[in-house]
Amino acid sequence: MPGSVAPLDLAGVTIPHHFRCPISLELMRDPVTVCTGQTYDRESIESWVATGNTTCPVTRARLADFTLIPNHTLRRLIQDWCVAHRSLGVERIPTPKQPADPVLIRSLVAAARSQGSAGASRVAALRRLGSLVRESEKNRVVISTDETRSALVEIAFEGEESGSPDADQPAMEAMAVLSMLSMTEAESAGVAARPERLRRLGEVVRGHPSTEARINAATVIEAVAAGAKSAETRAAVGGTEGVMEGLVELVAQRGNGRAGRVGIRGLFALCLAKENRGRALAAGAAAAVVGRVAELASSDVERALATVELLCREDGGRDAVVAGWGGGAVAVAALVRVMAGKASGRAAEHAAAVLVAVLGGSEALHAEAVAAGVVAHLLLMVQGGCSERAKRKAQLLLKLFRSAWPRHDTIANSDDFLQPF
């Protein structure tokens, strides 16, 4: 009970020593026992282990394993003690929801992998795994082991050759679970190294009748592209038939916020490789992404504008972006709105970079931007806590706009904000 020990002591209530966590010295809410026989509050011992400690805090003995066994007896005693002292302001601790049992997880994975089992039982096991992952972050940690992820990858792509409906259903369920887990660099590279698996992802993200299946495939595509951390891998994924087209179609799917977010993340991860930017433009990515900017949450605007910035670096990218917004004046107004809104500093930085590309040498667009109030926002970027890259972009724009500033504006006659950093 974080922060509760001092108030209880001040109220004259003495917490029994064995009810306190040896690490935090606070009343335990979820007591668990480690292999040395010592009991700690789950949150405290998990934090202890997460920071790299491999010994028992009390005994200093090395932890042979990191299994945490719920101490139900002690937890009930603590709850009874809380109830007995309710009149003194002590609140009863709730019964914690325990993480998924590793034995259950192994059983579900075995059932899902069993080729001899009926398809329905395999699907049921995979859906139960998915439900457990969604239930809590603790479950996600328990489930996301090398063994489980390896099994899910095998199941997700087992129907790649037969293409039969019976093989497809367990594969789609496995891909759904896989999309909620983080893949390692080796696992991502392992998927990317097999063309038949990339073809399968392209087929699903582009042509599967289920939107949910397409979104899951797009999530796996992003994980593979981002996890492998290799331009060659990203190029291979982006060059697979159906991948770019499928991601763009998800972004363009209005009324489905999750589809748009996942599609944009996938496009961004792939467009980090220069070879994929032309492919993305050919698939219509520019119009699809800029069409979603106005409706995205601030955290997603950053990724969308970063994608647009990458597309602007490709031949024809600037023209495609301007056309997607419906013209240069509309594009300028949209970008200034982003800079003036509540978007993050990184989003404003990407908006400034895109604005540089959109303006080109057009004096008319320069005047449009100044009339929209861009100068004030650029000055704030120069003076504020933005990155050095953002400040350089803002300085460049201020220099471009200098001729378009109103002649009576005192800023137009000052070099204070145009000095290099």
Report on the structure:
The protein has about 425 residues and is mainly α. The protein has 23 helices and three strands. The longest helix has 18 residues, at about 210-230.
Instruction: List segments where confidence is low: pLDDT < 50 over at least 5 consecutive residues.
Output: 1-7, 407-421
- How many helices? 23
Based on secondary structure, the structural category is mainly alpha
For the secondary structure, the number of strands is 3
CATH evolutionary superfamily of the largest domain: Leucine-rich Repeat Variant
Mean pLDDT: 87
Strand content: under 5%
| The CATH C-level class name of the largest domain | Mainly Alpha
Q: Write down the secondary-structure element order.
A: HEEHEHHHHHHHHHHHHHHHHHHHHH
Report the CATH topology name of the largest domain.
Leucine-rich Repeat Variant
How many structural units, i.e. domains? 4
Radius of gyration: 28 Å
End-to-end separation in angstroms reads 49 Å
CATH architecture of the largest domain: Alpha Horseshoe
Described by strand count, sense and barrel closure, the largest sheet is:
3 strands, antiparallel
Q: What is the strand arrangement across the widest sheet? A: 2-1-3
Essential attributes:
421 residues; mainly alpha; Herpes Virus-1; Leucine-rich Repeat Variant; 4 domains; 3-stranded antiparallel sheet; 62% helix; globular; disordered N terminus; disordered C terminus
